[in-house]
Amino acid sequence: MAKKIAFTVSNDLTFDQRMIRICTSLQNAGYDCTLIGRKRKSSVKIESTSYQTKRLNLFFEKGKLFYLELNFRLFIHLLFSKYDAYCAIDCDTALASLMAKKLKGVPFVFDAHEIFAHTPEVKDRRRIQKIWLWVEKMSFAKSKFSYTVGAELAKHFEHCYSHKVSVIRNTPIPVSIPPSKIPQEKYILYQGALNKGRGLENAILAMKEIPLKLKIAGEGDLSDELRSLVVKNGLEQKVVFLGFVKPHKLPELSRNAWLGLNVSENFGLSYYLSLNNKLFDYMHAELPSLINPFPEYIAINRQFEIGVLTKSSVSDIVTNVNLLLGNEAKYDLLKSNCKKAKDVFNWLQEEKELVRLYKENIGE
Q1: Neighbours of 76 (CB within 10 A)
Q2: 292-302 burial by CB neighbour count: b if 16+ within 10 A, else e?
Q3: What residues contact 335, with CB distance under 8 A and at least 6 apart?
Q4: CA dihedral 77, 81, 87, 90 (to 10 degrees)
Q5: Parallel, antiparallel, or unpaired for β 213-217 and 187-191?
Q6: So what's the pLDDT on residue 197?
Q7: What is the DSSP letter of 249?
């Protein structure tokens, strides 16, 4: 009988491309996977998947009570359901799995997408940070095995907890790119959460001096604030908010763009050591991008020059976009390098390590 694995997240499942890939790959490898998250008022119907999904209806939407309610409801579900392993995605769902593991003796796996205690929302709130650091410590200490999205994060966790941490990068499944068409318009694309530290405020202000449109695909804590910033600066004709875009529609949006935007502020260790999926999504769309000048991105851009390292200031964004606009040869080189890089960085390579980890530690 297939081993049953519960994956717990704090989102509503619909737009989490990493978890869609992980659960699909493990399901295809012979496991029985269930992805468990929350249901929001704005949640859309989950499209058909090979694995099972479960969404919890919660009363609280955010804050301390949200995390307490989420973990309590997850704990109750895990306690009264039969699973052969629990995998917590980040610290915010780890407590439920840790408590269920203690009572039921089920193996616990920890998937750390980020350093939760060093995210912008947490790092300056010392008491809250201490709680999450304790959860992080327990998660690594009690895990059968653990993994994260990049080598720099893995090194950080291994240094802090003397615990082996594997790397499963958040890369797309490779697909063939249709013959190129001349786009109707040149635009810059940002895809992802509209949260603090993503450099979006400065990117919007930079559009005053850039002769292109900026299209923003995603929503988040800053959704209203960013829309207000656009109106305040009279940029309604240059900055377009697309809202949530379903994962299967993002590749075409990226392929039709002229430049990708991936410029974060250095808001602490979690951002500085990150390796986000945007880098790979743009790469697989053969789309040059402005890239964070942080260790992981510098290393990949040194191996395959796929973009321009850019600080999150208005002046740096303006300078580098306009330089590319005036240097077609440089732009074409970056585009060509994206094509080479995606043969190395893709999900077919990452899932081999993922499946190996589960087979060696959880069994078949």
Answers
A1: 13
A2: bbbbbbeebbe
A3: 286, 287, 288
A4: 0
A5: parallel
A6: 87
A7: G
* CATH number, domain with residue 159: 3.40.50.2000
Q: What is the pLDDT of residue 46?
A: 85
Give the span between the Cα atoms of 169 and 186, in whole angstroms: 30
Q: What pLDDT, on a 0 to 100 scale, did the predictor assign at position 184? A: 66
Q: Strand 213-217 relative to strand 239-243: parallel, antiparallel, unpaired?
A: parallel
**350 and 315 both lie in a single domain:** no
Full-model pTM: 0.91
The neighbouring-strand residues paired with 147 are: 111, 166
Range of the domain at 44: 4-171+346-361
**In this structure, is residue 310 part of a structural domain?**
yes
Task: Write out residues in the chain with pLDDT < 70, as ranges.
Answer: 179-184
SS3 212: coil
- Cβ-proximal residues to 58 (8 Å cutoff; 6+ apart), any chain: 38, 39, 66, 69, 70, 73
The DSSP annotation for 41-97 comes to: TTPPPPPP-SSEEEEEE-S--SHHHHHHHHHHHHHHHHHTS--SEEEEESGGGHHHH
pLDDT at 179: 66
| Contact by Cβ (8 Å): 358, 29 | yes
